[in-house]
Amino acid sequence: MPYPTGNPTNKHMISSPSMPADGTLQTSYGFSNTPDLFKALEDGAPSNLKRLGDVYSYADGPSPPLSRDFLVVGFADTALSVVRKLVGDDDDDTPPCLQKCLISSKRMDGSYAKSLRPKDMENSKAFSLFMRRLKKEGVVAIIAKDKYERFGILKPSESIHPEGELTADDFFGICYVGRVEPIKDFLAKGIRAVVDEAIVDESSVLWKPTGVMATNNGLWQPPGNNEDTGADPFSWKPPDGDTNGLSSGNDFEATFQNTWDTVESGVGNVLSTKRKRKDNEEHGGANNENDFHSNAGAAAADEFYSKLTRSLDTRAESRLFHMRSFNGWVKATQIQELDPRTKPDRGKAGGPMRVLDLACGKGGDLGKWVLHARGISNYVGSDVARGSLRDAAVRARQIRQKLKRCTFICADLGSDVPGRLKSPNSKYMQKLSMWSLQDESEHETGTPEFRMLRGGGIASNEKFDVISIQFAIHYMMQTKQRAQRFFETVSQLLEIGGNLIATTIDARVVIAHLMNLGLDLHFDESRNSTMDQEAIIEVGGGACRIQFEPKVVKRIFQSQADSSTCVDDLFGLEYSFTLVEGSDHAAGVGNAVNLPEWLTPIPALKCLAAEAGLELEYVQNFHEFFAIRNDPNTHTAAHSALYNMKVLNRNGSLSTEEWEISHLYCAVKFRKVSESTMKLDDIVEEAEEEDEIAPLRLKQIDPLVKAKLMPRAMREAKQNIGNEAWLKLSAEEKKHVVDVSIEKLVLECG
Ligand SMILES: C[S@@+](CC[C@H](N)C(=O)[O-])C[C@H]1O[C@@H](n2cnc3c(N)ncnc32)[C@H](O)[C@@H]1O
Known about the structure:
- This is mRNA (guanine-N(7))-methyltransferase.
- GO terms for molecular function: mRNA 5'-cap (guanine-N7-)-methyltransferase activity; RNA binding.
- Keywords: Methyltransferase, mRNA capping, mRNA processing, RNA-binding, S-adenosyl-L-methionine, Transferase.
- The protein is of the alpha+beta class.
- It has 3 domains: 10-189, no CATH class; 296-318 and 354-621 and 663-688, Vaccinia Virus protein VP39 (Rossmann fold); 698-749, no CATH class.
């Protein structure tokens, strides 16, 4: 970077602690760790500063301009981690929270010296010697905060020579300016650290922050192959080249118009075969530690998902590798787009979010959440599969530095209720098996130990800004009661203004497939279908198979034929879903999922959500989801992520099979607009099942205990929310947050 040639826009007076004649800047005024550096910024400039001289800033400077007084509060070694992370070696890699600009004094090298007045010469010489000293000692100068809460890091030019004749490089420095809080956030989240450390696992893939496309060099890396076919990375087209992303180009027409909120869709390669269905009873019966889950579907999911291991190697072998990456991309995009505005005021301040990840599995989305621009103050994951949760806890330990608080709770979300009473008549919150990162020492490496805790560790007045249920809401649709229970729990735990996001099988597309099977759809006088065959839909060259029993197909056809069908009839539409990823079953690449699932008709979803106070913001088939975000100019970060997350194969696309299968999924987003008015059908039965352990309510906590816990509760509440957001809370909101914290402490201490 050369001496600036543009017109200076502002003049500043730079002052620094006096240069020690013996000893180094680092030993005399240095910071040897990050907390000291930030503390010095809070303390303000020291009193012993001496004026060095005048410097100038240019059009690349921040707006509002830098302060007139440029005060050096001390020095930091360039090897110090905070310096490396913020201003590193690579000048093109400045984090988004910092702005880079040039600061200079007038040049006095060569012929320039002749035109300078003696006063200017003296001024420039002082600054150039200062820059040389920084260079020689391998330090940067830390500039005090200005009234906009911005501080700076002043670094000498890379090409400066600490000895010899003065050259142009001695008369300028590079200044990195940024606001303290976003910088702290950045350091805490360690976006760059996450990218550097490449936490690559089966579904935790990387999301680069906005702006990466500006330096697009080498971003496109075909998985496991460096053979670049020259495909234009900016113009990914679906395999068959369609432009709206909704038609695969196969001959296809839905026979019925009433395809539960119709999609205009087309998917090919659909077969129908009559096959004997595997008896799912064995799943229910096979679940040991019997009765852990009262529901057979939940027990089957526990059994199946707890045992499911798909290592990185086998995942890469899968013929559905890019489809899985595409699924991950949809989730990451949904997550990154979130910006809920919730109360108390934390949402408005754009502060860190409280996240509840339902059916979180092995915590594969943790890596996506910690990269969210707003940061995460609390992450709670819940799932029915105990084995998966243990893996998730291990994963959380690995990114401990990026997680303030993290808890995993084992619950069947169609029946159990974490953090709330099951009914207004209930006296007690349920005890649920849980594990918390914050309960452990940093060095814990053994098997994560789960313990039973009331509410699973969620306090009765604790809420979330975002609730996510990825690739799992279909497990809630077995009965209306279970789906209601799920939505009620979501509503109770979600703050007004908060979002529920989900991905699931797109019932509209599945039905369109069914309609295209050429099954006998005639009805007899009593409007029953005469069809008696099972229906099997095969998509993606047979890699995906969806199988329905005749009685379910009949119900679906009836609901399609009869527009007066009540939403109550749209539950329990069971199918079994199989993804055959490769031929090597022993290596875990065989049948990926073969569990009973239930269709998720959009009208049923909308209806229950509305009763729970949630408004549908969108439901987008994955093809549509992609088409909407395909333009790199309007969706730069999402588009970049297609490459970073290895969504595209070496032809810059997905295989036809993968693209067809991805059409089977949709993404959904709701916003909570009011409190729930839902009347739970299973409420009496559930209330009777309550256990007998003492209830926990804040008002019942001994005032002495409460007083004793208050300082810690306040400290933890502040820590969770972040100082900036905390300062913006009203007294009442602070009290609420501290109350939540006290209740949690009491829960945790038993
Ligand atoms: C396809 S996996 C998705 C996991 C994770 N959300 C993801 O996107 O990677 C479905 C998850 O739903 C969970 N699940 C199934 N039925 C459930 C239930 N009744 N309650 C809670 N979780 C359930 C399974 O254990 C499994 O972890």
